[in-house]
Automatic annotation (TrEMBL):
Function: Na(+)/H(+) antiporter that extrudes sodium in exchange for external protons.
Lipid bilayer topology: Multi-pass membrane protein
Protein name: Na(+)/H(+) antiporter NhaA
Pfam name, any one: Na_H_antiport_1
Transmembrane segments: 52-72, 84-105, 117-135, 147-166, 172-192, 199-215, 279-301, 313-335, 347-371
Source organism phylogeny: Bacteria, Bacillati, Actinomycetota, Actinomycetes, Micrococcales
Primary subcellular site in the record, as a coarse category: membrane
Keyword Metal-binding attributed: no
Alphabetical list of InterPro entries matching this protein: Na/H_antiporter_dom_sf (IPR023171), NhaA (IPR004670)
Length: 399
């Protein structure tokens, strides 16, 4: 299953699933698919009554956020964000890439869609890195490192947005018990470090994780936050083991299924000029906002922090990273559903806006970086393999 860990494969699966969902939704099968998405089980699951679509967004997507949180912890402890000096420039660039799209959206969306301002602030890690891996093989390693760091910080900000702005009511009791579940998960993870391969302990970790997820879902906070909390507190050894096992499932099933479900909307039979301001705000804010925000903030950050010239990401490279930063996709689709959950029409137009804006950013970024890539000498395959092996050994040593 190593092939499915390839960022190019992951990106293609995401794109293919989204296209398939959009296609099916606009055929004769569309009404049946829509009914299936909104169907509920004939019984509740310990008090949870979710539609099929919400079992994907509130249930399966937790696996993706759990894996992302493990990656977050690694980057902040041992990776590209493990020190203030390493994290400073990506953080400044990421903040610019959040602020400018949000401001653009807020000024374009109008009063009815104003609550969706966080939608264009996200960057899809899997998709962006997949495009870079496809067209930027010769680019310096610090370009990929910057894009990864940007996306990681971006996801962290997106998680905070989901927790703070898309929570209506909170059950303090359920949330407090969920916090105890996170603590129990952390303690079990520390015990696991000295007992690798203990199946009873693995099963207990799984049970505690499921109970914690249920408590978070019942608390009123979006259930994906449970995956984030659990991934951040899990000790390195079990975390790496879990990532190895769950990453193929996340890349091959969870994300494509989420992309298919979220993208399966009927395209409104109206001229482009009659689409709501929400659609146009996202289409513009994702590629343009990210390009202006990340490029400007990145240049300011490198200059203000006096990064040595040999270590800087050049302006031409920063533009390429900024274009790929406009691929919102996964987290943007999720925030669109949360922001417009009370208005089906805005969910549809917001989804189309995310798909169109992300596609524009992906195409522009791919073409631009493919041209830029040709200006660099070929990377020796042996050197690339050695670099990849060294990175893997570094990750293992951290476990």
């Amino acid at each position: 299953m190593t092939w499915i860990r390839n960022p190019q494969v992951s990106a293609m699966l995401l794109l293919g699933a989204a296209i398939l969902g959009l296609f099916v939704a606009n055929t004769g099968l569309g009404p049946g698919l829509d009914a299936a998405k909104h169907a509920h089980l004939p019984f509740t699951v310990f008090g949870l009554d979710l539609s099929a679509a919400h079992w994907v967004t509130d249930g399966l997507l937790v696996v993706f956020f759990f894996v992302v949180a493990i990656e977050l912890r690694y980057e902040f402890t041992q990776g590209d964000l493990s020190s203030i000096s390493k994290a400073a420039v990506p953080t400044i660039a990421a903040l610019g890439g959040v602020a400018v799209p949000a401001i653009l959206y807020f000024n374009l969306a109008g009063a009815d869609g104003a609550q969706g301002w966080p939608i264009p602030t996200a960057t899809d890690i899997a998709f962006a890195l997949g495009v870079l891996a496809l067209v930027g093989r010769r680019l310096p390693s610090n370009v990929r490192a910057l894009l990864l760091a940007l996306a990681v910080i971006d996801d962290l900000i997106g998680i905070l947005f989901i927790a703070v702005f898309f929570t209506e009511t909170v059950s303090v009791l359920h949330l407090g018990l969920a916090a105890l579940g996170v603590v129990a998960f952390w303690l079990l993870g520390r015990v696991y470090r000295g007992k690798r391969g203990s199946w009873p302990l693995r099963i207990l970790l799984l049970v505690v994780a499921l109970v914690t997820w249920w408590l978070v879902a019942m608390s009123g906070i979006h259930a994906t936050i449970a995956g984030v909390a659990l991934g951040l507190v899990l000790s390195p050894a079990p975390a790496e083991s879990a990532r190895e096992k769950l990453e193929p499932f996340s890349n091959g099933i969870v994300l494509p299924l989420f992309a298919f479900t979220s993208a399966s909307v009927a395209i409104p039979q109206v001229p482009l000029g009659e689409l709501s301001p929400v659609f146009w705000a996202i289409v513009i804010a994702l590629p343009v906002g990210k390009l202006v925000g990340i490029t400007t903030a990145g240049l300011i950050g490198q200059s203000a922090l006096r990064v040595p010239k040999l270590e800087r990401v050049r302006f031409s490279e920063l533009v390429g990273v900024s274009l790929l930063g406009g691929i919102g996709f996964t987290v943007s689709l999720l925030m669109n559903e949360l922001a417009h959950r009370s208005t089906e029409e805005l969910i549809v137009e917001g989804t189309l806006g995310v798909l169109a804006g992300s596609l524009i950013a992906a195409v522009l970024g791919a073409v631009y970086l493919a041209v830029l890539n040709r200006s660099y000498p070929p990377v020796d395959q042996a050197e690339r393999s050695a670099r990849d092996a060294e990175e893997q050994l570094h990750r293992i040593d951290g476990v």
